[in-house]
């Protein structure tokens, strides 16, 4: 497994690296202090996971997120001191799959990375299916029509798989949270709302008036059967 860590705090990099090597002794870790260099590494090295700080010396971590999502669906875990809800929502909307606030617990970091790996493997096990006017290919994390190709993050991909497998039935917030994070993520409902909003922007003709992914108020979401 290969992980790129985009972080300018050497103590954080060393701490993360030590923890990860204890769990995965053969892991390859590529650290960089600069966001631009990190983007270049991701394009050339094709990592399995990216750990990203928001406060970087050259460019803002949000810009790094935005640029990565232009060409890659690699799982991204944001690791930052920023704990404001607006920052969490912004990171998730730009394509982050996980968000951990410093100071962090090392085993939580490991658990979140394991979940990201499981989501990636889950997606690769699925076949191409039809959703509305789109062909959904979970293996490549993409939605297709004749004229449009839209890339999904690994988390968006897994949520869409869960909704598809339960087409016509409500999937509760708890069910989605358990599939993504087990039960240890206290802000799971807020994060799920963000992921659903992102999915709707990619799959719906009008995200403000969804026709495919519908809400069951206070309970969860369901995907309308289209076949």
List the helices and strands and how they pair.
Blueprint: E1 2-6, H1 10-23, E2 28-32, H2 35-45, E3 49-52, H3 61-68, E4 76-80, H4 85-94, E5 98-101, H5 106-124, E6 129-131, E7 134-137, E8 142-144, E9 149-151, H6 154-165, E10 171-172, H7 173-181, H8 188-203, E11 213-216, E12 220-223
Parallel strand pairs: 1-2, 1-3, 3-4, 4-5
Antiparallel strand pairs: 6-7, 7-8, 8-9, 10-12, 11-12
Helix pairs in contact: 1-5, 2-3, 4-8, 5-6, 6-8
Keywords:
227 residues, alpha/beta, Rossmann fold, Arc Repressor Mutant, subunit A, five-stranded parallel β-sheet, four-stranded antiparallel β-sheet, 12 strands, 20% strand
Structure, described:
Helix 4 links the parallel strand 4 (76-80) and strand 5. This protein has two domains: 2-120, Response regulator (Rossmann fold); 127-223, Winged helix-like DNA-binding domain superfamily/Winged helix DNA-binding domain (Arc Repressor Mutant, subunit A). It has eight helices and twelve strands. By secondary structure, it is an alpha/beta fold. Helix 4 (85-94) runs parallel beside helix 8 (188-203) and helix 6 packs across helix 8.
Q: What's the tally of helices? A: 8
Structural class assignment: alpha/beta
CATH class of the largest domain: Alpha Beta
Number of domains: 2
CATH architecture of the largest domain: 3-Layer(aba) Sandwich
Fourth-level CATH superfamily of the largest domain:
Response regulator
- Identify the overall geometry: globular
User: Which H/E pattern describes the elements?
Assistant: EHEHEHEHEHEEEEHEHHEE
Global Rg: 17 Å
Residue share in β-strands: 15-25%
Approximately how much helix is present in the residues?
40-55%
Low-pLDDT stretches are none
Mean pLDDT across every amino acid position: 88
């Amino acid at each position: 497994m290969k992980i790129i860590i985009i972080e300018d705090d050497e103590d954080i990099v060393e701490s993360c690296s030590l923890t990860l090597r204890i769990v995965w002794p053969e892991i390859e870790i590529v650290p960089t202090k600069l966001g631009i260099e990190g983007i270049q590494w991701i394009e050339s090295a094709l990592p399995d996971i990216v750990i990203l700080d928001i406060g970087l010396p050259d460019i803002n971590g949000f810009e790094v997120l935005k640029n990565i999502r232009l060409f890659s669906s690699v799982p991204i875990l944001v690791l930052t001191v920023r704990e404001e809800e607006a920052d969490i929502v912004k990171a998730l909307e730009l394509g982050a799959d996980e968000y951990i606030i410093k100071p962090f617990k090392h085993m939580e970091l490991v658990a979140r990375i394991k979940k990201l790996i499981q989501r990636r493997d889950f997606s690769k096990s699925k076949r191409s299916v039809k959703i509305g006017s789109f062909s959904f290919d979970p293996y490549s994390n993409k939605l297709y029509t004749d004229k449009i190709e839209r890339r999904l993050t690994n988390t968006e991909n897994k949520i869409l798989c869960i909704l598809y497998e339960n087409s016509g039935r409500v999937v509760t917030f708890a069910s989605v949270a358990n599939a993504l994070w087990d039960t240890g993520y206290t802000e799971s409902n807020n994060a799920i709302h963000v992921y659903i909003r992102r999915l709707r922007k990619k799959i719906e003709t009008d995200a403000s008036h969804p026709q495919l992914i519908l809400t069951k108020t206070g309970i969860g979401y369901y995907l309308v059967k289209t076949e």
